[in-house]
Design goal:
Residues 115-211 form the SH2 domain. This protein is α+β, with helices and mostly antiparallel strands and 497 residues long. It has helices spanning 122-129, 189-198, 269-281, 312-315, 319-322, 326-345, 380-383, 397-402, 407-422, 434-442, 455-464, 475-483, and strands spanning 39-40, 54-57, 76-83, 86-91, 97-101, 105-106, 116-117, 139-143, 151-159, 162-172, 178-179, 232-241, 244-251, 255-262, 290-294, 301-304, 310-311, 358-360, 366-368. It has twelve helices and 19 strands. Strands 1, 2, 3, 4, 5 and 6 form a six-stranded antiparallel sheet that branches. The chain has a five-stranded mixed sheet with strand order 7-8-9-10-11, with helices on one face. A five-stranded antiparallel sheet has the order 12-13-14-16-15, covered by helices on one side.
């Protein structure tokens, strides 16, 4: 089921850069299954503390749909109704009302600081600070992952190992002040940043520029779930798979998307809609986002975000992919484990986890695609283990033999996926046919370690390939091990300067 997915135009960091085409489209769609009842504010002019419920625009936004409210960065907006990704708001300056993307505004004044990154993990801070465009001394302050209400400072450094990121805990005083070193305290985080910009004072570097922070991707159009086929323009065929084609397309003349067209008869429309309604609720930044569907007549269209680099399998075979070094290959693995840990936590199953079903965006973020689709394919060549399309080489023995698919069979597949990554796209069990693989697994055979594969990574693969499903690790564990693959013996945070 591997394919190329899609996503709005992006900058080098991989976030949406917005669109200058102000094409307004009247909503005329089936309601999004994930939308919740509107949370109207009983007194929309007041916050919980009695203050006005005001948000500040973090970016410019040009209205794209009927009912949207455009605004400029820094503009103050009164929030009238909070409902998922789109809030109803009124401009303080003009009084105009309309819907705004909630991730383009902030109520907390701290969030308006260019150097503050809300909800970013330690690992993602490293990924963002090490991205192109940032220099030594680039920094961010982010929420602490371990201590509610506290913060961490992450700084890009360059030491004997090359470019790296150092992390410092920002501790709070009882009176509300902040400090990294108890030698000097600050009334505000702004004062702390100002001080360490002037001098390193014990940090690895003095602070220079905030980490680059492009516009976030705009939320998908409000309530646009079942959309008209004519709202899509198929621009370029990106590939063809076993069950359909993948196209780069434009939605309503303004949003770049990927469209997967399913071959008629490959699945029941009713079964697909049931699964798609569930898939739509799975939203995580390491999962390809399902935006909308076209199901009124065949072929079924599946509309997702656009991923510029295509599948991980294709990417690591390119010249660019071949230049990716081992630490980044491990990072790809950690990103996939993070997405699968979310699927695991939601009690869902992928069923077809392999490099062809991982997509890569412009900033080398890996996202899991096609989760759940394998379950509803109606094709004997795919559903029967003897079928030519069945992915035997990625499938756990209990799933091959008894059709027992669980999150633990996904863990087995993840181990096979690791071999694809470390070998830059080599097909698993090289030189062996599917029947030979089945017989070899029954004898207890496991793929041998490649010379380029660290023993510690091979040990992780072997854990994934334990014969008893219950003996295999969780994805939560795999994520933690892979994220700390190079730092397991080091403190993740620097000592107080």
């Amino acid at each position: 089921m591997g394919c190329v997915g899609t996503k709005p135009e992006q900058d080098p960091i991989g976030k949406s850069m917005g669109n200058s085409d102000s094409f307004n489209q009247t909503p005329h769609y089936t309601k999004d299954p994930t939308s919740k009842a509107n949370k109207s504010l009983s007194n929309p002019t007041s916050g919980s503390d009695g203050s006005e419920n005001i948000a500040i625009a973090l970016y410019d936004y040009e209205a794209m749909h009927e009912g949207d409210l455009g605004f400029k960065k820094g503009e103050r907006l009164r929030i009238l109704q909070e409902s998922g990704e789109w809030w109803k708001a009124a401009s303080i300056s003009t009084g105009e009302e309309g819907y705004i993307p909630s991730n383009y505004v902030a109520k907390d004044t701290l969030e308006t600081e260019d150097w503050f990154f809300k909800g970013v993990s330690r690992k993602d801070a490293e990924r963002q600070l090490l991205a192109s465009g940032n220099k030594t001394g680039s920094f961010m302050i982010r929420d602490s992952e371990t201590t509610m209400g506290s913060y961490s400072l992450s700084v890009r450094d360059c030491d004997q190992t090359g470019d790296t990121v150092k992390h410092y805990k920002i501790r709070t005083l009882d009176n509300g002040g902040f400090y990294i070193s108890p030698r000097i305290t600050f009334n505000t985080l702004q004062d702390l940043v100002s001080h360490y910009k002037k001098q390193s004072d014990g940090l690895c570097q003095s602070l220079t520029n905030p980490c680059l922070s492009p516009k976030p991707e705009k939320p998908w159009e409000k309530d646009a779930w079942e959309i008209p086929r004519e709202s899509l323009k198929l621009d370029k065929r990106l590939g063809a798979g076993q069950f359909g084609e993948v196209w780069m397309a434009t939605y309503n003349k303004h949003t770049k998307v990927a469209v997967k067209t399913m071959k008629p008869g490959s699945m029941s429309v009713e079964a697909f809609l049931m699964e798609a309604n569930l898939m739509k609720t799975l939203q995580h930044d390491k999962l390809v986002r399902l935006n909308a569907v076209v199901t009124k007549e065949e072929p079924i269209y599946i509309i997702t975000e656009f991923m510029e680099k295509g599948s991980l399998l294709d990417f690591i075979k390119t010249d660019e992919g071949n230049r990716v070094q081992l630490p980044k290959l491990i990072d790809f693995s950690a990103q996939i484990a993070e997405g699968m840990a979310y699927i695991e936590q939601r009690n869902y199953i992928h069923r077809d986890l392999r490099a062809a079903n991982i997509l890569v965006n412009k900033s080398l973020v890996c996202k899991i695609a096609d989760f759940g689709l394998a379950r509803i394919i109606e094709d004997n060549e795919y559903t029967a283990r003897e079928g030519a399309k069945f992915p035997i080489k990625w499938t756990a023995p209990e799933a091959i033999n008894y059709g027992s698919f669980t999150i633990k069979s996904d863990v087995w597949s993840f181990g096979i996926l690791l071999t694809e990554i470390i070998s830059y796209g080599r097909t698993p069990y090289p030189g062996m046919t599917n029947p030979e693989v089945i017989r070899a697994l029954e004898r207890g055979y496991r793929m041998q370690r490649l010379d380029s594969c660290p023993q510690e990574l091979y040990d992780i693969m072997l854990e994934c390939w334990k014969n008893k499903p219950e003996d295999r690790p969780t994805f939560e564990y795999l994520q933690s091990v892979l994220e700390d693959f190079y730092t397991a013996t080091e403190s993740q945070y620097q000592q107080q300067p």
